[in-house]
Fold:
Amino acid sequence: MTTPDPQTGRCFSAPQMVDQVAIFFLAGHETSASALAWALWLLAAHPEWQDAVAAEAAGLTPDMTGISALRTTRAVFREALRLYPPVPMMVREARRPTIMRSRRVSQGAQLVLSPWHLHRHERLWDRPGDFDPGRWSRPEGKASARDAFIPFSAGPRVCPGAGFAMIEGVVMLSRIVQAFHLQPGSTPPLPVARLTVRGRDGIALGLRPREIIRDASPTA
Structure:
């Protein structure tokens, strides 16, 4: 609010500041809420993975020293980001003329990138429509992740909060599933693209307190 632009010497105007705050709110809260909601629903629909996440959560201490050991939870969260990327499409502007897939792209052209389609492409993923967190530990899944997984975009315009989001999402997912047993609602949610990918009529879940499960290992 008080630091001037190094080139113009001007600070943000009030409307510009509102725009900046709105972007931070969207990027830091709306996207995280979307990813977490879909991850919880996926676990509710797949109780074997839910129990594995709950068991793994027992090793997470209050000082967060056990985050690196939450491999199953991290795989579940990544799989949720693959199936339901919070930002289903994004736009980039061509800086110079180029050729893309035998088509001419002029300078300044607006290119739409779609994580939704890329993450579900049969040529790039094995059984792309299935919820399979185990894919992230297999060689073919790791190869697909390198070539076709962009929930945070990629390159110089990648989301600056990607690292934090992966910690935040994994920790919250771990703690919620450790405390509650999840059950899916009577009607599966229908994804729609608004500002983020949401359930058209919401995402209904049932929660009840659970005992901490110490040992559960699903088959990948």
